[in-house]
Amino acid sequence: MTCYLCFCSSSSHTEQKMTGVGLRYLTETLLDKMGIVYVWWYYVGCGGGMQIFSGMAIKCALGLFDMFFSQCLGLCCWCFYDYEIEHTLSLSLFPLLLLRPLGTRLHILHSLRKLWQMAAENTKVFNDPIHGHVEMHPLLVRFMDTPQFQRLRHIKQLGGAYFVFPGASHNRFEHSIGVGYLAGRLVQELSERQPELLISSRDILCVQIAGLCHDLGHGPFSHMFDSMFIPKMHPKSKWKHENASLAMFDHLVSVNALEPVMKDHGLVLPDDLVFIKEQIAGPQNTVPLRQGWPYEGRPEEKSFLYEIVANKMSGIDVDKWDYFARDCYHLGIPNNFDYHRFLKFARVCEVDGKKQICTREKEVGNLYDMFHTRNYLHRKAYQHKVGHIIETMITEAFIKAEPHIQIQGSEGKMFTISTAIYDMEAYTKLTDHVFEQILYSSSSELAEARKILHNITCRNLYKNMGQTQAKKRVEVSQEQLQKWASELATCRPESDLQGVTLEPGDFVVNIINMDWGMKEKNPINNMRFYCKNTPTKTTRISRDQVSQMLPDQFAEQLIRVYFKKRDEKTVEAAKINYVKWCMDNNFSKPQDGDSIAPELTPLKRSWFHNDDENDDEEDSQGGRSRAAVNIGQQKAKARLF
């Protein structure tokens, strides 16, 4: 019997996939099983045709196919067609690798059949408002068509910000699709630009799955759930949504029986499952398996793959690329970062013995724009004072509803809103819809929670007393926040406040930490850059080399105080307490409040002076400044006392 395997020039997309992609998957999978180096495949379109380059790759491929076809089917003849060109390669050029066991031959034929069917599967195209027409691999579509992933349609990307920005109605679902798409774009760019990296189709598929599934663990209203609600319900818990993403990923694969499907698409389990989860939440083992290398899914030679979805080194990853573009689009805020340029100049270089994703030196300004966009989004949208007040109110409503909301989980067990995080069957049913469940309930047990949510819909919100800052960053616990609330209720001047009584429960103190993604550090310091003429050598670029106008500090902490009551007399008393509380704790002058009177602020000399004034200027204006301070103090004290 003679078997012909042909690579044909054709305008048919299906034929190209059958001949090119299918054989690539097949060859890589079989070489994987035999411990042979991956084959590098290059497709060059010419009238729809494809050519394959690299002599060693052809020898490996032909030797492999000749090996099992000669044993299973008899004589094998290889032909390459390109309309007018036909080359028949002599089998004598390639030594026969004998595979005598029948089981091995049958396994290879089974793999051939499965992978050939896989290559014939059509990808699915999604019309995304940010990235255009996004093409998704069939295996990714299988992950998407599950209840666990579809749940993300009902979780707002920006939580309470939707109550402030009418356009911010997008959900975690579309963001996850975007991250999966961009993850594939970046890893494919690296594979085509640097074939010596030996990036396999398995690698590409695993990176895409990690991007697609990285946010499976988000709860109702996204970050409100894991940064506000859970810390109040479980103060000692270190739970994060990344932990839930891993648990939900395992649950998704298990209940939807996706392991056989993953194997059919060329993935090797459990190694690739571990690799996917490591990309989402970091190393799974506390003790490094290899000296200096904590990851199990891929060896250190492929360390750069861990920088694509969630970059723990510099914070430059496709997750940010998508939510910058998507959030700016829906918020109506300009996006100054262009990820397309990063894709064009991304390159893997060796840095301190490890392979790291680097970019051209001229792109450093683009990266600073990226982190500036991040900071701008936090200030204008993510930490918007009204959005934050609404999330605070939703959190309080959830806390009051906690004992009375029951969610059925695995084996018929019942869970509350906060305990559902420990059972993925129950957690799958927990989305933003719990807001409407409480709001439209008729249960008397949910009356208090329902009233809070009703106030949100009627815009009867807590009052913002303002925000201040401590001299140094402080680590604040739930106990400290409660202590501050008690101080605010009792921190009054020695005067009669017309019988107004303030309770600790009337005040809400929130801590907001804003940075460039790496706390006090400049993330660009962890990035390496290469030059056009020396692409294999990298260097750091300091902040001073870029611009003298870049920030000196990359993190700050804000202390915001909200007041629950709304009557004018009580609010007036609360704001006086708040100003005195800031003075007693040596905090900065309060700013950005709803109702802080200007006359109340110049009570401290440091609040009156501009911190940037130099000593000479202060000396020359000392008398005038002191007089102004005294006048301001007299006005304020007249109101305080």
Automatic annotation (TrEMBL):
Q: Where primarily located? A: nucleus
Identify the residues that the record assigns to the HD domain, covering every copy.
172-324
SUPFAM superfamilies in the record: HD-domain/PDEase-like
Q: Region (Disordered) spans which residues? A: 591-641
Q: Which domain of life is it from?
A: Eukaryota
Q: Which PROSITE patterns match?
A: HD
Acetylation: present as a keyword of the record? no
Similarity comment: family membership? Belongs to the SAMHD1 family.
Where is it found, in Gene Ontology cellular component terms?
A: chromosome; nucleus
Gene Ontology BP, a term? regulation of innate immune response
Cite a single Pfam family from the UniProt record: HD
**Localization (cell):** Chromosome; Nucleus
Species name for this entry? Oncorhynchus kisutch (Coho salmon)
- Name-wise, this protein is Deoxynucleoside triphosphate triphosphohydrolase SAMHD1
Determine if GTP-binding is one of this entry's keywords: yes
Which residue ranges run through the membrane?
none
One annotated GO molecular function: dGTPase activity
Q: Which UniProt keywords are given for this protein, alphabetically ordered? A: Allosteric enzyme, Antiviral defense, Chromosome, DNA damage, DNA repair, DNA replication, GTP-binding, Hydrolase, Immunity, Innate immunity, Metal-binding, Nucleotide-binding, Nucleus, Zinc
Q: Which reaction does it catalyse?
A: dCTP + H2O = 2'-deoxycytidine + triphosphate + H(+); dGTP + H2O = 2'-deoxyguanosine + triphosphate + H(+); dATP + H2O = 2'-deoxyadenosine + triphosphate + H(+); a 2'-deoxyribonucleoside 5'-triphosphate + H2O = a 2'-deoxyribonucleoside + triphosphate + H(+)
